[in-house]
Amino acid sequence: MPARRLSWSATPHELLPSVIGRQPVAFAVRSGRVLGARRRGVRIALMPLEDLRDGHVLGDTLNGWLVWQSVSCRGVVTRLPCDVEVLAGALRVPRRGDGLVVRAALRELFDVLYEERRL
Question: Are 70 and 101 in contact (CB under 8 A)?
């Protein structure tokens, strides 16, 4: 996990109503100071499969989410919240650099979701 605090374009608590409402969200996260114009940080997008035309071909549209991130530019279908390490492995996110930021951001977001226990 990054040694420094994460800076978010939208905090997990700000994202929570959209995720619980099964709305697509995208956000940026970086380790350290506030997100600036020079460095956008890691980008993550969460899209419920039910919002995709023919999303059922990817999985269970009632519970499935497409999770994409900018470090490896890969996405996977999963339920939310889920095990961060398993998800990061499926996304082929490295265990160094911005890969640690992705892991920390997903862990923090999923912790908020688990606290709510509404997904």
Answer: no
Which structure tokens are listed for 60?
Answer: 């269970």
**Beta carbons within 8 Å of 79's beta carbon, 6+ residues apart:** 60, 63, 64, 65, 119
What's the Cα-to-Cα distance from 101 to each of 24, 76, 111, rounded to whole Å? 21, 18, 15
Query: In tens digits, what is the pLDDT along the chain, a chain of 119 residues?
Result: 445 689 999 999 999 999 999 999 999 999 875 545 446 689 999 999 888 778 778 766 778 899 999 999 999 999 999 999 999 999 999 999 999 999 999 999 999 999 887 55
